[in-house]
Automatic annotation (TrEMBL):
One of its GO terms (biological process) is methylation. This is Methyltransferase type 11. InterPro entries: 23S_rRNA_MeTrnsfrase_RlmA (IPR052939), Methyltransf_11 (IPR013216), SAM-dependent_MTases_sf (IPR029063). Residues 52-140 form the Methyltransferase type domain. Pfam families: Methyltransf_11. CDD domains: AdoMet_MTases.
Amino acid sequence: MITFEDRVAEGASVPVEGWDFSWFAGRATEQRPSWGYARLVGARMTRTGRTLDLQTGGGEVLAGAAATGTPAVLVATEGWPPNAAVARRRLEPLGGTVVPVSESDPLPFGDGSFDLVVSRHPVTTDYTEVARVLAPGGTYLSQQVGQGSLRELYEFLMGPQPPGTAREPGWHQQQAKAAGLDVVDLRDEWLRVEFFDVAAVIVFLRKVIWTVPGFTVDAYRGRLHDLHELIERDGPFVAHSRRFLIEARR
């Protein structure tokens, strides 16, 4: 029988660098948004000369999108050094360049440097900077994590949390318009997520660090034990992620 401590030890030992979620196969599932973000990015990259991916993680999504055709200029930013190293190994063979930039820093690129700016699940979005580095007629395409995503999970661990607005699609639409961008597409979906054991929860929270800010196993050991017993008794823990797609043009 696999004990709670076994699950904790496993969850704490899994590397979390990069943005590859293949470890979760058989351990957790997440319904995918209907629009197919990587496919949309790939289609646009075949029609552009200069692409910038903000907060690329390990470059997994960008590399997959580039399989349909690499633009003449391919640049990605990433602020966490372990992820940046993974992204370089993945993107440099495709002719890409990875620039170390924190999500809170201005972009180190000239005005109008890119025809396409993309970003999947950014921590923050500075629409003024996005608009500045886009060339006239350029496009910003992003899949974002919506407000209340995985509320069932983070409130199980942290208790009730006050609602916010910074991840509401309408707020992003307002910010984009204020920066001078024309929002041409905005879609919002709730998606089913299942965790089959508490080790998968631990790895997820270590990897997707904004879900439970400051998460450590020791800080949440009691609630993790309760979650382990709940899953063992009732089956997978079900939550719902929220994703929205925003496309804007300069």
